[in-house]
Amino acid sequence: MKKNKSVKRSSARLAAIQALYEVELSDSNVDDVLIAFLRTRWDTPQEDGDEDRDSSPLAEPDKQLFSDLVRGVSKRHDELEEMLSGALSQEWTIDRLEAIVRIILMSGIYELYIRLDVPPRVVITQYVDVAHAFFEGPEPGFVNGVLDRLAKTLRPDDFKKA
């Protein structure tokens, strides 16, 4: 049961990154993208030969987490971007980041900052895994470093030695 919940939450994070990317690239309304994702990707069974449907093996997500991430990251975009900017080294600026890397980082920052029910190490691991879904190069390590740095700032008590 717990593993199934974990898979649904991981799937929600990956889907949220995809939805946020779509919002950014198409300048679409967040609610329109949420509805489209929920209706076209998970609510209707895919029929054999339905070529218009995505046939990815993505597990059904935790829809509440998915919606919270998409709405929350969108609503707090400027605040999250400012936190991200402050966590980058001097040679990196937000403008240098690929859009998907920036969205992954901002989603991770949102969870570290707002979703205090999720342990910071879980947040970091989950978003490094998401980065691995999109990249084979150094990007997952970059995501790990930035989120680790921010986690220690945003949740220092979680990193104190017992």
UniProtKB/TrEMBL annotation:
Keyword annotations from UniProtKB, A to Z: RNA-binding, Transcription, Transcription antitermination, Transcription regulation
Pfam families: NusB
Residue span(s) of domain NusB/RsmB/TIM44: 11-152
Keyword Kinase tagged: no
Domain of life: Bacteria
GO biological process, one term: DNA-templated transcription termination
Keyword Cell division: no
Entry's Gene Ontology molecular function annotations: RNA binding
Residues of the signal peptide: none
GO cellular component: cytosol
Reported function: Involved in transcription antitermination. Required for transcription of ribosomal RNA (rRNA) genes. Binds specifically to the boxA antiterminator sequence of the ribosomal RNA (rrn) operons.
Family note: Belongs to the NusB family.
Protein name per UniProt: Transcription antitermination protein NusB
Source organism: Terasakiella brassicae
